[in-house]
Amino acid sequence: MRRLRRDRRAATAVEFAIVSVSLVSMLFAIVNLGLILWTQGSLQTVAGLSARCGALGATACSGGVPAYAVSLATSWLGAPVIGTGNVTAVSASSSCPLGGSGNAAPGSFYYVSIASPYFAGSWLPYPFNNYTINVSACYPM
Hints:
The chain is α+β, with helices and mostly antiparallel strands. The chain has helices at residues 2-6, 11-56, 65-77, and strands at residues 87-96, 105-117, 132-140. The chain contains three helices and three strands. Strands 1-2-3 form a three-stranded antiparallel sheet. Strand 1 (87-96) and strand 2 form a beta hairpin. The protein is elongated. The termini are far apart.
């Protein structure tokens, strides 16, 4: 037994096995946080372009702003992340409610809001498994 206690040949492998679990978990969390931020940025751009399309009455969104937002998000993100039920489009909104409560800009705006559950969240641990991405954009009319 003493001989086994003094044997140091596999110490590095054991240390790596202990440390690698936390390193792989942190790497996994960093990659998923990057995916969440990338998806949120893409959906924010989709909301802005959809609001602009609706305000200008462009032919690209003649089938409806929610359908335009869904097709744009699908082409940008490569997966059907949102459906038309996730998109709210309000024409001629009397204010632009961006920036929290009390920070609404007066005027006439086309307002688009997108709420989407994180598409890879069903198999992730807490806090990523129930994350909903909420974005909104206004465009003056």
